[in-house]
Amino acid sequence: MRAMSSSAVWTFDDFQPGLVLGRPAIALDALRLAHWTAIYGSSSATPDRLPSGLLVAAMMESYLRAVQPRPPGNIHARQGLKFSGTAKPGEELRAEVACIGKELSRERRWVTFGVTLRCGIQNVLSGEIQTIWAR
């Protein structure tokens, strides 16, 4: 994690491939599931499995919590997902958010983040988020 003040906005120069940016925890509690159901309607969750979209939302929340404050004007260019397990209502996910790459191409600052969600020792979701960084 970086040793900058918490109010300093992340810039392209701050990112280094391999740098772990944060390890937030995401509770898959009844309140989170109720919010999900209120937004998306009847949940496809079962006692054994959560909706995959809720896991994607947890991945994005982990990224947003780990990489802040962000400058205005960033562009979420693409993401990739690989589901490799399941999580149940009531469990807790542990995320790891890292910079896995960056490049300057045609005057655009591309930053690629890797996000892994684990439930216990099992990987549940691995994702990449590629962003055009504003500054």
How many separate helices? 2
Strand content: 35-45%
Tell the overall outline.
elongated
- CATH homologous group name: Hotdog Thioesterase
Low-confidence stretches: none
Fraction in helix:
10-25%
Given helix and strand content, the structural type is: alpha+beta
CATH topology, what is it called?
Thiol Ester Dehydrase, Chain A
CATH architecture: Roll
CA-based gyration radius: 16 Å
Distance between the terminal alpha carbons, to the nearest Å?
20 Å
Quickly name the level 1 CATH class.
Alpha Beta
The succession of helices and strands, N to C, reads EEHHEEEE
The main pleated sheet reads as: 6 strands, antiparallel
- The residue-averaged pLDDT reads 91
Q: How many beta-strand elements?
A: 6
The total tally of domains equals 1
Please give a structural write-up:
This protein has a single domain, classed as Thiol Ester Dehydrase, Chain A, CATH 3.10.129. The chain contains 2 helices and 6 strands; from the N terminus they run ββααββββ. Strands 1, 2, 3, 4, 5 and 6 form a 6-stranded antiparallel beta sheet that branches. The chain is elongated, with a radius of gyration of 16 Å. It comes from Roseiarcus fermentans. This is Acyl dehydratase. InterPro entries: HotDog_dom_sf.
Q: What would the keywords be for this entry?
A:
HotDog_dom_sf, Thiol Ester Dehydrase, Chain A, 6-stranded antiparallel β-sheet, Acyl dehydratase, alpha+beta
